[in-house]
């Protein structure tokens, strides 16, 4: 029997598998069609399911995960932004920067600058030196 008139428990299990797949393989190129095939579900139904569970399209959910995961690397000042962009599945540093700004309100460089202003960089440096 469908939950909320939309999804059966089996549908929700496949939607959850799709979300877990994105969370694990977000660095790879993932299309809605390939994701639907991965969990054996109709593309439109999966799109509706991701929208229902996450409030985002499949594409936007993938971008959100990539940005969230990239934030940890941005805290590592030794890693260039272009390397972070590539590591997290963005086709170019400019695409990464534009998406990062759209989601956070600042560019990756501004984010790093804000870490310095908030003394997070200094705290991270101190912790690293103390544990050595």
Detailed description of the structure:
With 132 residues, the protein is mainly α. The protein has two domains: 9-55; 63-131, Orthogonal Bundle (Arc Repressor Mutant, subunit A). The chain is built from eight helices and no strands. The chain has helices at 9-25, 32-38, 43-54, 58-74, 81-87, 93-104, 108-117, 120-131. The N and C termini lie far apart (58 Å).
Overall pLDDT confidence = 90
The gyration radius over C-alpha positions equals 18 Å
Tell me, what is the CATH class of the largest domain?
Answer: Mainly Alpha
The end-to-end span amounts to 58 Å
What CATH architecture of the largest domain would you give? Answer: Orthogonal Bundle
What attributes characterize this protein structure?
about 130 residues; Arc Repressor Mutant, subunit A; about 0% strand
Element layout with pairings:
Layout: H1 9-25, H2 32-38, H3 43-54, H4 58-74, H5 81-87, H6 93-104, H7 108-117, H8 120-131
Helix pairs in contact: 1-3, 5-6
Short structural summary:
Helices cover 71% and strands 0% of the residues. It is mostly helical and 132 residues long. The chain folds into 2 domains: 47 residues; 69 residues, Arc Repressor Mutant, subunit A (Orthogonal Bundle).
């Amino acid at each position: 029997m469908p939950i909320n008139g939309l999804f059966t428990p089996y549908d929700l299990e496949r939607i959850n598998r799709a979300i877990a797949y994105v969370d694990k393989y977000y660095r790879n190129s993932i299309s809605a069609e390939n994701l639907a095939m991965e969990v054996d579900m109709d593309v439109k139904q999966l799109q509706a399911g991701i929208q229902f569970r996450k409030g985002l399209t499949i594409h936007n959910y993938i971008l959100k995960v990539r940005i969230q995961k990239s934030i940890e690397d941005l805290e590592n000042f030794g890693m260039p932004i272009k390397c972070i962009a590539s590591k997290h599945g963005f086709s170019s540093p400019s695409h990464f920067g534009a998406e990062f700004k759209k989601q956070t309100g600042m560019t990756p460089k501004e984010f790093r600058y804000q870490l310095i202003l908030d003394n997070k960089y200094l705290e991270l440096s101190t912790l690293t030196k103390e544990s050595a």
